[in-house]
Structure prediction request, 136 residues.
Amino acid sequence: MKITLPARMESLQEATRFVLSHARAENLPGGRMTDIELGLEEALVNIFQYAYPEGGGEVEISCRIDEGRKFIIEISDAGIPFDVLSVAEPDLSLALEDRQIGGLGVLLIRKLMDDVTYRRERNRNVLTLTVIKTPS
Prediction:
């Protein structure tokens, strides 16, 4: 299943509905649904805010089950190349005023998902978020 939407904040609710409806259809537990919603929102907001500085772009989202137990969300855009995994984890031991700005959303995505990968393919950013449906 796949959906293509304008890469702007107004698309966030529709994108979230799309992914969560597929996650529900696969009977993912409620706690994982929350993880998916938060991780997806963080990833999409980054794309909406930074991928297309001139505006006018799109984001494509697909969902699938792999190996019968992995719920996979693939998000792709043709915006500026950006490997979300290249962002260093923020140093949470520092006082708030001493921390660098940014990076918390990426940290959240990494913590909520069981696996996160990035690749650049045919001039597109492809971010893959994986949630394990059942324990191995």
Notes: The beta strands are 2-6, 58-66, 70-77, 115-121, 124-132. The radius of gyration is 15 Å. Residues 2-132 form a domain with the Heat Shock Protein 90 fold (CATH 3.30.565.10).
